Every structure is written in structure tokens, then in C-alpha cells.
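Re: the request from the purification team.
They wanted to know what the chain is likely to look like in 3D before they choose a buffer screen. I agreed to run a prediction and write the result into the notebook, where they can find it.
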Amino acid sequence: MEHLVSKATIQIQKPATEVFQAIVDPSKMCNYFIGKSTGQLIEDTTVTWEFPEFEGEVLIEVAKVVPGELVSFHWEGAKGKKLLVKISLRELEDKSTVVRVTEGEMEADKAGIEWYGGNTEGWSNFLACLKAYLEYDINLRKGAFEFRKGEM
């Protein structure tokens, strides 16, 4: 059976070191993605994230961190499934950075297809919010998901 992998990519007009810091530093992530974190994303550590529009905590098991290049972690990306997320950075000659997120894998069944749609949408939103924060100091996420309170 085929496996599904969620993918999203965007180019941000900032150097990879700045983009990387916005991903690993919870004081920066709270400006565009999460509401709260128990710590920085450091290799072989575990932190919890809270999202302002959802109840509960999300456990993040940091797998690999390469400064300016990669952040990967495991989380419950689908109900009862621990999935690997990889956020890779590639700085271009103009000092902009291509950010690519992959998450997976899930079976290509009904549950997998629903997960694929939702998580691809979610990671695309993450990237748009990251870009808006780094380039324009705007928090696109603020108030964007109030309608989903209590869903998680």
C-alpha cells in the first residue's frame, strides 16, 4: 500500500540563521505558531507545546537539530500515531531561505487521506505565519483559529 507524506515549502526573505532561530526559540515561536512551550528545540530533548486555540499540551520529542539547516521531531501528528516532522532550511545566494516541511508517513486509506489534507494545510499555514512574522512582524495566527477552540 502507498504511504502519504505531508509536504509544504516556502521561500522567506531572511537568512537561514534567522529562520532557524525563529523555529527553535519558543519566545519567537509564540509570535506566530504556539502559545507556550516548555523549552527550546534542542536535539534529544522533549518539550511540550500549547496552542492558544486548542486545549491540552502537545509532546515534542526533538530528534535532530543542525543549526541553520534542520530541525526534526516526533509528535502525535495523527490520533495515536507518532510521526516524524522534518523542517529543512536551504539558504540561497540572495540570503533568502527555502523552508521545507515534511511529515509522515500514513497509510493511503480514509484516515490517512484526511490526515494528509489537514496536516498539509496546517504546515502551509505554519510557513505562511513564519514568513509574515519574519518579514513583516505580523502574527497571522492571532485570532485565526478561534472557531476551532475545544476541537483538540
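For the purification team: Residues 132 and 138 are 5 Å apart (CA to CA).
Please add any questions underneath this entry.
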